[in-house]
Amino acid sequence: MTKLGLLLLSFLAAGLIGCASQKKAAAPEETAAPVEIAAAGPVESQSTAWVSGVPSWYVNPPEDDDFVFGIGSAKLARSDRSRSAAEHRARTSLTFQLEALVDAMETDYYSESGTIKDAAVAEMFEAVDRQLASTVLRGAKIKERAIGDDGTVYALAVYNQVEAENAIKGVIESAASKNARIKSDAALRAMNAAFANKLSPPEPVVTGDE
Questions:
Q1: pLDDT per residue over 33-42, tens digit each?
Q2: Would you say 167 and 97 are in contact if contact means Cβ atoms under 8 Å apart?
Q3: Are 195 and 161 in contact (CB under 8 A)?
Q4: Between 35 and which of 17, 27, 142, 153 could a Cys-Cys bridge form, CB atoms 3.0 to 4.6 Å apart?
Q5: Is 87 within 8 Å of 154 (Cβ atoms)?
Q6: pLDDT of residue 200
Q7: How far apart are CA 187 and CA 104, in angstroms?
């Protein structure tokens, strides 16, 4: 399990334990109203289209140069738990993509800078991982949510790419100010290249009964 995934799944576990302590079951959800993003988003909220019993945006997640997407689903004993689990899994799917991007950045950094493996650089990219995990937890929005006929809840998470870039830049600049061996220009070029090549389509995280 990746570092970002472990952190997000620990939040999921804490949320499910909190739900279990409630004495009164929540009323079941009957409709799946999309959640609006506060700022202008890449996709307009609209009625969900279904493909073979699954939301179309779950089968073919949106693509946008300014946003990163994640998908998740869950079918638990209670609808409120299913909803919470699906949303956490969508955020986890999103962070898996960002982690892959950071891995690509680290590889490209050594090519850009012409340097060999360095402990300070490795520590910098580990800090980037941690910072992205934190910013995704705070900033990722649930753009769409839908409930299948069998009670499975599907969720689509979205995260603003500019926020991810700013989080990464902050870590790079801080690390470079403390260690002259770190070449911030090469790191930032590697970041731009990684985002330009963009991430692979999001993969769903854990679907099924629990």
A1: 333 333 333 3
A2: no
A3: yes
A4: 142
A5: no
A6: 58
A7: 11
Is residue 200 within 8 A of residue 99, CB to CB? The reply is no
Q: φ and ψ at 146, to 5 degrees?
A: -150, 155
Alpha helix ranges (H) inside 31-183: 56-59, 79-113, 119-139, 161-178
- What residues form DSSP beta bridges with 160? 67
Q: Please tell me the predicted confidence (pLDDT) of residue 205.
A: 63
Contact 112, 190 (CB under 8 A): yes
The whole-model pTM stands at: 0.69
Neighbours of 176 (CB within 10 A): 19
Report the C-alpha gap between 184 and 166 in whole angstroms: 14
Q: Are 87 and 183 in contact (CB under 8 A)?
A: no
What pLDDT band is residue 198 in, cutting at 50, 70 and 90? low
Q: Which amino acid is at 78?
A: R
